[in-house]
Amino acid sequence: MSQWVATGYGALDLMENAAAGEGYEIAVTSVHPGPPILLFGDGAKVWRALASGGVPAPDAEEGGLDILHDLRDMGLAGEDPTHPTRLTGVSRPWLTSFTHELVYALLQNVASKAGIELVFIKGPTLHAQGLREREHSGDVDCWVSPGDDVRLADAMRPWGWTPLMLPFTGTTITHSLTLVPGEWGCAVDVHTSFPGMRSRPADAFRSLLEDSQPRSFAGVRALTPSREAHAVLSALHDVRPYNGVAPTDHDIAKAATVLHKAGSGVMTVVDRFDAGYVLRAPLARAFGDDAAHRYSSALPPADWAMRTEAASSIRHFKALKFVPMRHRLRALTRLVWPTTETMRISMGNAQAGRRAILVARVRRVGQSIKKLATGR
Q1: Are 9 and 31 in contact (CB under 8 A)?
Q2: Beta-bridge mates of residue 321
Q3: Of the listed ranges 42-56, 225-239, 279-293, 355-369, the one predicted with least confidence
Q4: Least enclosed by CB within 10 Å: which of 51, 111, 284, 365?
Q5: Mind listing the pLDDT tens digit for each residue in 141-193?
Q6: What stretches of the chain show up as alpha helix (H) in DSSP?
Q7: Sign of CA pseudo-dihedral 209, 210, 211, 214
Q8: pLDDT tens across 286-309, in order?
Q9: Is 208 left (phi over 0), alpha (psi -120 to 50) or beta?
Q10: What's this model's pTM, rounded to 2 decimal places?
């Protein structure tokens, strides 16, 4: 007699979760691409039994076999105890949004299947580590090795996420690749570098990976940064230039607060990332003269002047010199003439036809020429 087991890419117990809606008991991500499946009644009862250790196949006369077949067809059950996506439990959500927690679990499963190492950054883990007050984040952020961002984006396409390919995607200029959501409604930012570090992106990621800690999302084991490393990433996010505008005093104070919460051990992380120049002001506020002296002669990242260029058109062309020669023509072409998929995303119209896209592109070229002429 075969043994049936629960399968899936993450599961959550919704019995005490009002946000799930009355009557739903379990949310499970199927092994087949699609949104989470909400179980209730007999389906939830049988699946919970499967996740508790598996059950022998029941007699067809008892009616239970029909439920098992339905669960199998939905990608939530199987007859192989060694199934690679077997789930052996169902935990309660610890994120405000159970859907977002399932996205974390799905990303980890998809990345593992593709052989991609991944660390989840920012978001609710910062709250769990006592580094920020806000608990919920509207999207999910992760960090992968350079080049794995596009691989992960391709692997997430079947699940409904579309990568927003920008002119500098695949280079250190664009530090993250945004995956635009479909039915799930939760965007994903896949980082491959972090503005403000002099350390090479591959070395920085390896350092982060070695300093990471396990954390569970919807029953799936994943990695998140140590408290000190996470504080440094949060501070770098606070002080990075936005559209060429330098950080305000409020931004610097915010960065200083998170660094101080994590303690002076953050300076070891700052040294590993070689981020002392960008963080020297908040570090000085957080730890006083010792930090101020330690980073007084720190050097800026090579692209920092470019990032603080106020005129977007000039900033884009300055960025080209940081793009490998073999990729410059592609980047320049995308600047002037974005891909059809990117245009549809920017227009907010997934069904936009060729003519509408052509008009939008021509308008974009005109706006770019105007900005160059006026130095904007």
Answers
A1: yes
A2: none
A3: 355-369
A4: 365
A5: 999 999 999 999 999 999 999 998 877 777 777 889 999 999 999 999 999 99
A6: 41-51, 64-73, 98-113, 124-128, 148-156, 201-210, 227-239, 249-262, 266-273, 276-287, 289-294, 304-307, 312-319, 325-336, 340-347, 354-374
A7: positive
A8: 999 989 899 999 999 988 888 888
A9: alpha
A10: 0.88
Residue 26 main-chain phi, psi, to 5 deg: -140, 140
Reported as a single tens digit per residue, the pLDDT across 198-225 is 999 999 999 999 999 999 999 999 999 9
Instruction: Report the length, in residues, of the chain.
Output: 376
3-class SS letters over 132-196: CCCCCCCCEEEEECCCHHHHHHHHHHHHCCEECCCCCCCCCCCCEEEEECCCCCCCEEEECCCCC
Q: How confident is the model over 3-12, as pLDDT tens digits?
A: 899 999 999 9
The values of phi and psi at residue 147, to 5°, are 100, -30
How many CA atoms are closer than 13 Å to the CA of 101, on its beta-carbon side?
Answer: 27
What band does 311 get if pLDDT is binned at 50, 70 and 90?
confident
- What is d(CA 299, CA 302) in angstroms, rounded to the nearest whole number? 9
Helix (H, G, I), strand (E, B) or coil at 286: helix
Those residues with Cβ within 8 angstroms of residue 253's Cβ, 6 or more apart along the chain or in another chain = 282, 285
Q: Is 95 strand, coil or helix?
A: coil
With b for 16 or more beta-carbon neighbours within 10 A and e for fewer, the 214-223 pattern comes to ebbbbbbebb
CA angle 28, 29, 34 (to 5 degrees): 130
